Amino acid sequence: MNLMSRYEVVGDWGTSRLRLFRVEQGRVTARHDGPGIGAAAGQAEAAFAAAIGPWLEEAAPTQIRLCGMAGARDGWVEAPYADCPADAATWRAAATRFAWRGVPVAIMAGLACTGANGAPDVMRGEETQIFGAMARDPALGQGRSLIVLPGTHNKWAVVQDGRVSSFRTMPTGELFALLRDRSTLGAQADRPDPAREAQGFAEGLARAQEGRPLSSLFAARTMRLRAGRPAEWAAGYLSGLLIGTEIAEVADMLEQADDIWLIGDGRLSTLYAEALGRRGLVAQALDGDACSLAGLGLSGHPHHPHGDPS
Amino acid sequence: MNLMSRYEVVGDWGTSRLRLFRVEQGRVTARHDGPGIGAAAGQAEAAFAAAIGPWLEEAAPTQIRLCGMAGARDGWVEAPYADCPADAATWRAAATRFAWRGVPVAIMAGLACTGANGAPDVMRGEETQIFGAMARDPALGQGRSLIVLPGTHNKWAVVQDGRVSSFRTMPTGELFALLRDRSTLGAQADRPDPAREAQGFAEGLARAQEGRPLSSLFAARTMRLRAGRPAEWAAGYLSGLLIGTEIAEVADMLEQADDIWLIGDGRLSTLYAEALGRRGLVAQALDGDACSLAGLGLSGHPHHPHGDPS
Q1: What tens digit of pLDDT does each residue of A250-275 get?
Q2: Cα gap B300→A168, rounded to integer Å
Q3: Is B94 exposed, middle or buried (0-12, 13-18, 19+ CB in 10 A)?
Q4: What are the structural domains of chain A?
Q5: Which of A115, A179, A215 sits opposite B249 (nearest CB)?
Q6: Which residues of chain A neighbour B187 with C-beta distances below 8 Å?
Q7: ipTM of this model?
Q8: Measured between beta carbons, which residues in chain A are less than 8 angstroms from residue B174?
Q9: By its UniProt entry, which Pfam families does this protein fall under (chains A, B) (predicted)?
């Protein structure tokens, strides 16, 4: 084994996506994207070995660090949850460590909290992005910030003086996909029409302010039937109604926050930024991959071997 | 053709169910249940002929009256909507009439209204049950009543002095089915457990009072993961959360109503009656088939050739 082939593997293995990075001397030199942990159907170890197969042919990694649903009960090896409030050191110490083919593996802990209403809440993967964001930007570790992580199960996390003090999960992304693709309220458009979707989004956001989300859902259908709205409009309307409702439900968190940060997918973050903007709030957007890598221990900005850094 | 074979056919052809009744001398002497208009895939006429095939072999009916999605754009023949406020005479006059194989057919009109927020709303089939309920019970035609018709697309209709003045549709039933069967929030239980479902329903109803439906959805998952709730519990919780949210959204309608009536499926009506009961409200339940038949012009109580009348 020559020195140049020494590498570690870090990554986020979520419900719907696997993102692995090959890291050499602190820099990302390759990445592998694949299906989520659900697709592994209980064979996570074999799926992981297959995913890094080309790298393994050259040499074994020096270490492996993973976050996300890899640590869920149905994942690779179950990792614990660290209870909120949690700081980075407590969270890192809670990782599950074991050896795989002689290589040290760390699967990062998730976070758990109890809401003000007594209901439990959990996250796996987003905590790595949150701690990564704090590592990258010390401003986030001071005062009281609200971090929004849009996705299938959106997280709204309160960070205070370097600790994640609480968070709230809303399955808005999952609900939206069900309504758009599998309900009588969504409509299949012949081709995407961003302008009509944007109009629907704006109308959905406005409707959300009435505070009657269930009553407002059916308009996705009747506005097509009776008010001439095109099919493309409905997906935008449903998205605006749900995101607007979600933001109204976190009004207490918004009022108490010194600043607001968005971590994740660019397109979704843009929609949330727009919805927050309607309430006069400015959110700063952070790149999701960069935050994951920082949370997994890589300092600085990631190197993108294929494509421009964003 | 002898006198005894003279019969008419009335029925409700909805999205998911076809219910046809053979009526002789004002009494139901047979019924046919089949799939909804969606299953006919644009071949409604042929599907109808097949459904009443055994009766046709004997003789042609003297007339046919249908309500529901048979009159939708993708149904048999499109019927108009009567605009609210609408009384029974206006609504009956709006039916679409034509001849099929020489037999006079009437497809009843739907109802349309515009909500206080300017959004259009529509129903097809439920209006027949509402006008039928008024025909059966004159008390319903006086003062201001609120009629709840639980189903895939629940209707909350205000009836004043014999007219349907407005209504609101909530696709609660469709949303519940999506969440229970197709989301990560529902859970498949090995076998139904009514007691655990009832406990989940009660907890969901209580949670709905917090007024944060999106935030409360994820607990269907985390209460199983972290608080020992069994899989059976989750369906009850989702149902209670959605129905409780729905009832909170019609608080204005509840306050203004002199009385509340429930029309439809017995099991669903029981859940709505329980949820309304938590708010100190008493709802009177009416049989859905009996109301449909009365709305289609049959007086008195229907005769059930198979099974006890309910």
Answers
A1: 999 999 999 999 998 889 999 999 99
A2: 54
A3: middle
A4: 1-121 (3.30.420.300), 125-310 (3.30.420.310)
A5: A215
A6: none
A7: 0.92
A8: 183-185
A9: DGOK
